[in-house]
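Reminder: ligand-aware prediction takes two inputs, not one.
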Amino acid sequence: MPRIEGQRIYRAPGRVNLIGEHTDYNGGFVMPAAIDLYTQVTITPRDDRKLLIHSESFSDDVEFDFDDPHPIASGHWSDYVCGVAVTLERAGFSLKGAALEIRSTVPIGAGLSSSAALEVAAGYALLDNSAIQIDRTELAKLCQRAENEFVGMRCGIMDQFIACFGQAGHALMLDCRSLDYRLLPLPPGVRLVICNTMIRHELAASEYNNRRSECEAGVRNFAKFVPSVSSLRNVTLNDLEGYGRDLPEVIYKRCRHVVTENARVVEAAAALEQSDLQAFGDLMAASHRSLRDDYEVSCAELDTMVDLATQVEGVYGARMTGGGFGGCTINLVKADRVAEFTKDVARGYEQATGVVPEIYVCSTADGVADL
Ligand code: GLA
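Here is what comes back for the chain with alpha-D-galactopyranose:
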């Protein structure tokens, strides 16, 4: 289709997290990769201060006024876009009106960050449409703030950050305390295969916020003994053993997950740099067990998917990815075994659950861009 004058197209990727789950909002380490599933925003300038938002995936259009004095979230998909617009305006950026056409290949609610892809693509488009330049770190932070404050999901920075900074051929190791990052090349001969359980449990959002509160309770405990502790990132295994014993069992387990998971990400980065995929895969397995038993964010369908994958030859590692309570697993699979993997896991999962899974053999991708 020919473009209308002034029309621009932007896209931001979904992501998969290789390791480092529920560590971002604890100031810890994560290792996501951007994937070649995208949310695309076509923007056409308007002369007023209104946003007209249309998505190919939903029938209802939305109109939003930048000058609305009391914008509130409505539980609608468009909250992600309006939230970014409100947050940018509150940060002092004066936006110009526009019509937005949204289309996406990132499955919604599957834990592959469709919301961050939408926030980042829309934010980037709105800023560019208003001739405003900001750096990507600031964009990621503002999109996270939109989700925290406007949508009400207390997510960390991982998803928005990778949607901004992803690079094809690489995973990205991010220190969520300093926001320093390192790009880690993925060795040839291995594929990232994502298995979608097609299940999304209702508890996902409320339990996510509960986990955050439990971690905060853990921090308050350790800070009594070690005053420099302001997040679980500063808590060592020794602190956990020494000062965690009187914690309620649940809080202790949440803290143990975060502390051990941070250590696993550091080890996994070293393993990747040495192309030691076996060691990397073992760390993925340990991460899954910790998320299942200590953090309690897995579910029967995710555990089944991981168990099935682990039985297939040529799989280095498998684990749940993202927030949990359904969604996807990430599997590190030898390139020449991918076809068999896909067939075996799909058949096994359908037999066990009666649900036909979707399986994506992904390539890594670049962060948000102007097309
Ligand atoms: C969701 C959140 C992220 C992160 C993960 C869990 O994807 O948006 O910030 O906390 O869950 O690792």
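The first helix runs from residue 79 to 90. The chain has two domains: 8-186, 190-362. We will return to this case in the review session.
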